[in-house]
Saccharopine dehydrogenase-like oxidoreductase
Amino acid sequence: MATEARPFHLVVLGASGFTGQFVVQEVAREQAIPGLSPRLPWAVAGRSREKLQRVVERAALKLGRPTLPSEVGIIICDVTNPASLDEMAKQAAVVLNCVGPYRFYGEPVVKACIENGTSCIDICGEPQFLELMYWKYHEKAAEKGSYIIGSSGFDSIPADLGVIYTRNKMNGTLTAVESFLTLHSGPEGLCIHDGTWKSAVYGFADQSNLKKLRNESNLKPVPVVGSKLKRRWPISYCRELNSYSIPFLGSDVSVVRRTQRYLFENLEQSPVQYSAYVTVGGITSVIKLMFAGLFFLFFVKFGIGRQLLIKFPWLFSFGYFSKQGPTQKQIDAASFTLTFFGQGYGQGFSPEKNKPNMRICTQVKGPEAGYVATSIAMVQAAMTLLNDISDLPKTSLFIPLNLRIAFTDSSGPLG
C-alpha cells in the first residue's frame, strides 16, 4: 500500500454523520494508545468544514486530548461530486466510508478509491450493495491493488469471526451453525438511528433485484456437508436461550456464506452452513413485533408507504428507531451477546449418512453494537489492513484480526 507517498494513512469519510463521529473518536483513541509510535497521519472528510471541526473538537474534549484538532487533517468533499472524491482518495491509503445508505452513496466512493489505488472499508449491512460491488469492481480492484472491504462493523465481523472461532474450537468437523443475537439495554431502553431504518426500508423494497443479481451470478453451489441445516419459522422459540427469535435481516448470512465459499474453494476447508437470528424476548414482544412487521411489510411495497416509513421511523418501529438516535446514556448501558450453536461430527466419524454427534456453543460479547462495537471493528480492520498487508489474501476476502471482543465456548457430545 502506498502509505509513504500519501499525506494520510486513514481518512474518515462522513465523519460528521451520526456513526462517523464515533469512528472519529475511535481512531483518536487508537492513536493515543501508549507504545503506538509513530502516530499515523489521518484526516476527516465531508461537505462542511465547520461540522468536521466540531466533530474533532468533541472527540478532543471527550478523550482529554486538547491538541487533537491540530493533529487531524480536514478534507472537503461530496459523494455527489466525483472530482472531489478523487482528490480525497488520492490523499489517503485507506478510506473509512461512513456515508450511507450505501445503495445510494456507496458506489461513487468505491469507484474513486479503486481508480486512485486506495483501499476502502465500510460498515454496510446491505447485502445487495455488497454483492453488486463485488461483481462490478472485483477485477478492477485486484488490478489496481485496492482492497474494498465491506461489512466491517457489527455487520458482520462478530458473525464471520464467530463462525470461524467456533470451527476452530470444534474437536471434529463443524458442519452447521445457528447464531442468535441478543441486545441488552439499560433502564432507558434501546434506540437506533434512522439511517439503519432507511437501509432496511429500501432493502426490503428492492428484494427482487437482489434475487436477480444472485441468479445472474451463476455460482456453483457449495456442497452441504452432513445433515442439512433446517430453516426456522419466521417466529420460533429457542429453548437454550428461553426466548423467541426472528431471522436476522442484516448482512451476516451473505458475508459468512461468502467467507465459507472462499475457504472451501481456495483453502479446501469444509464449508459450514449458517443461519442468523435475533432474540425478541417473550410473547408480549412477539405480539408487538408482529404488528410492527405487518405495518412495515405493507407500507414498504408502495412509494408513498416508504415515504411514510422514512418520515416517521419512531412511530412505525414502535420507538426502536428515531431521527435523533440513541442518547449517550442509552449507548453506555447497551451491550450485545451473539450466541453460536454449532453441530458436527467427531474425529473419525463420517458425515456421510450419519447424524451429527457433536455440538458446540460459543459466544461473542461486546459493548453497544451499532456505534461502539461497530467503530471498534471498523478501526481495527483498518489497522490490520495497514499493519498486516503482507498476510492478507490477494483476492476478495478479508478477515480482520485483533478485534476487541470476548469469546467463550463449551462443547461436547450430543445428549
